[in-house]
Amino acid sequence: MNRHRDEEMARTIFAEHGRAMQLYATRLLGDAAAAEDVVQEALIRIWRHPEVLTNGQGSVRGWLLTTVRNIVISRMRARAARPPEIPESPASPAAVEDHASAVATSVTVHAALDTLSPEHRAVIEQVYLRGRDLDEVAAALGVPKGTVKSRAHYALRALRRAIRPEETWERQRQ
Amino acid sequence: MNGHDPDELSAYALGLLDAGEAARVEAHVAACEGCRADLTELRATAAALDQLPVETFVHGPPESDRALRRALARMRRDDDPGR
Fold first, then answer.
1. Torsion angles phi and psi, residue B39, rounded to 5
2. Cβ pair B59:A20 closer than 8 A
């Protein structure tokens, strides 16, 4: 309908989430070219469901990665249905689906991450991207190790509240 | 870890501590019911994070913009986006 706005949306999504989608699809498929097809399809799907961007439920990142996973699964099933022409795939559909069920339940966790302050989110991101090496995380963020630990604590506490809002985090101590 | 130290507990739950620091946390937690309960909840949250694909934490565009260009071409071709 509004072509300019739609194209801007696709460019914006790709600029922020394209690398995550591409890497995730490549890891699941073991094939960067096939992964590009999957990313293209995911962009088309969010174009057809733009309400995902504005409904305030869950996170765009969570929706996109879940969509990437769903596309990968359906393509693997299609491949398995015609085995002779298809080379061995690096991950079986069953393995991907095992992993995927965990991803599906984690849409809430994606949304919880979106509630963190930039400082707290950065600590969690660095911890996961840098293999939990405290020195590297502290160096990457340019803060002392004690600050990393302190922010990690606030981040975990905030995530806990966001994931399970009905439970109180702090316990009474005598 | 001397006394209750939530920062050390969180770092422990995330696997950030070295062996010596971790041993001190474990010794404290073994003797402190409150910190033990806190640690259980911190670990549950860390486990929820562990479920996410690591790509969750990657930002920016990929090296090639081929997927974007192809998607834009399809969008231009496709008069009916199916809305």
1. -65, -40
2. yes
For range B41-57, the mean pLDDT: 90
Residues A172 and A142: their CA atoms lie apart, in Å, by 35
- The segment with the largest mean pLDDT, out of A92-96, A170-174, B32-36, is B32-36
Asked if residue A96 lies in contact with residue A27, where contact means CB atoms within 8 angstroms, the answer is no
Looking at chain A from residue 65 to 94, which residues have their Cβ under 8 Å from any Cβ of chain B? 65
* Complex-level ipTM: 0.80
Task: Give residues with Cβ within 8 angstroms of B52, minimum separation 6.
Answer: A103, A106, A109, A110, A128
- Asked whether A73 and A95 are in contact (CB, 8 A), the reply is no
pTM: 0.77
Which residue in chain A is spatially nearest to B8 when comparing CA positions? A149
Q: What's the token pair of residue A156?
A: 């975990």
